[in-house]
Amino acid sequence: MTDTACPKLAQLSEPFPWLRSRLNPPDVYTALRKEQPVAQVKLRNGDSAWLITRYEDVKMVLSDSRVSADNSREGFPVLTEVRPISARVFLRMDPPDHSLYRRLFTNNFVVRRVRAMRPDLERLVDGLIDEILSSEQRPIDLVHKLSLPVPSTVLSWILGAHQEDQEFFNDAAERLLVNGYNATDPEAAGRAMQAAGELVGYVAKLMAEKEASEDPGDDIIGELVQAVRDGLITREEAIANGFIFIVAGHDTTAGMTTLGTLTLLQHPDQMAELQADPSLIPNAVEEMLRYLTIVDQVVLRIAAEDIEVGGQLIRAGEGIIPLINSADRDDERFPNADTFDIHRDTRGHFGFGYGVHQCIGQTLARGELIVVFERLLKRIPTLKLAVPFDDLEFKETASINGVLHLPVTW
Ligand code: HEM
Asked: Which residues have CB under 6 Å of ligand 1?
């Protein structure tokens, strides 16, 4: 463990991960970028890992083939007390296994397909806003009424769920999320496990239907069924890698909708600008992705070979935690990085990660967020927080940032 004389770095002696500061990363990241950009920390399970906090170092780690994302390697960082039992998913694989899955799914996320989805997306978001506006109830919880149902409905579309199963799908996905973030509460963890089991069962059912037909089609489940037929992967691998979309595409997009809205409410001048000129919304979404970089403790790696990062030797087999939410607040890359500014040049942010694992769903996520903010700002222009900011309950221990509820009124 690295000793340090800098009092701001005292937190280094506490096991990682550390609590975020609401919309911001833990304060200590700023000091780390200055004083100790590659720092060894203790994890809750007693292992050690290297924290990488500067933009350029994170970029290097995420694009260097000597660094692996394979969590079956001994020493891969585990951020909970106990190593979770997880199926093998392509998020945690290296090429060439990883490349096989990326090839299977790429077509489902190309710009053309996402563009074609736009009218349906607008109808979905408008329908949810109609419900909000027509209900007598105020305040409403934006998390429940908008942030969660948009991505879960979109996920049900891209997985080819049946229309009549929509309610089940959204409900199970919400139970998984709302209960799943806090692994320290055994009852909540049990409810999350139950919901996960139901969704895995549902993915298996969709697969079985496709298996029965000669042409399984080219949607995500269809591609997986064909890959099993071609002997490229097993049926269990297909189910696990179909299910991962429900986890990867839901909490993230929901969190960005909620915290993006909250960020705008905290910056009313910029919110008014977007209302006056909606053509600024796409760049504002990019700035939200940078400023919030909500995927906090998911991007984990291990050195497959000895590698030097920022002048520090990291040996093969040692865990690496490239902190994308620190990198995106690095003043060296984004001047005044702690300031939210919808006009800034946001190019190169790590909101969707970087390198071979960079988010496969990013075009879709951008499409969802742009439509959400276009419709929300236009249709509820007087939207405001219904409780003091300080009363909001942040998911401080979750691996993806968010709030449990966002009570708003207008
Ligand atoms: C705003 C919303 C989203 C954010 C902020 C986000 C963020 C990320 C990040 C940071 C990674 C990289 C993980 C790593 O390097 O270890 C990632 C990967 C991934 N994301 Fe997203 N994501 C979002 C939406 C989505 C959506 C809508 C989907 C699919 C429907 C999706 C599916 C995935 C998958 C499958 C991976 C793994 C890719 C791979 O390992 O090759 N994400 N995402």
From this structure: 69, 90-91, 102, 155, 244-245, 248-249, 252-253, 256, 294-295, 298-299, 351-353, 357, 359-361, 364-365
- Of the pLDDT bands very low, low, confident and very high (cuts 50, 70, 90), residue 5 is low
Encode burial over 130-147: b for 16+ CB neighbours within 10 A, e otherwise. Answer: eebeeeeeeebbbbebbb
pLDDT at residue number 26 = 94
- In angstroms, the CA 89 to CA 212 distance is 25
| Nearest alpha carbon, ligand 1 atom 39 | 357
**3-state secondary structure at position 213:** coil
Atom of ligand 1 nearest to the CA of 295: 10
**HSE toward the beta carbon, residue 402, CA cutoff 13 A:** 26
pLDDT tens by residue, 144-197: 999 999 999 999 999 999 989 989 998 998 888 888 766 567 888 889 889 999
- pLDDT, tens digit, 9 for 90 and up, residues 197-224: 999 999 999 999 999 999 999 899 999 9
Kindly give the residue spans of alpha helices, DSSP state H, lying in 81-184: 97-106, 111-134, 142, 149-158, 166-180
How does pLDDT run across 176-190, given as a tens digit for each residue?
Answer: 888 876 656 788 888
Report the C-alpha dihedral over residues 62, 63, 65, 71, rounded to 10 degrees: 20
Residue with tokens 């506006």: 133
Indicate the pairing of strand 48-52 with strand 312-314. unpaired
- When computed from its CA atoms, the radius of gyration of the chain, rounded to whole angstroms, is 21
Ligand 1 pocket test: which of 64, 103, 359 has the largest number of ligand atoms within 8 Å of its C-beta? Answer: 359
Count CB neighbours of 194 within 10 A.
14
Distance of CA 42 to the CA centre of its chain: 24
SS (HEC) of 249-276: HHHHHHHHHHHHHHHHHHCHHHHHHHHH
Q: Which atom of ligand 1 is nearest to the CA of 365?
A: 27
State the virtual CA torsion across 102, 105, 111, 114 in degrees, nearest 10: -140
DSSP codes, 41-84: EEBTTS-EEEEE-SHHHHHHHHH-TTEE--TTSTT----SSSPP
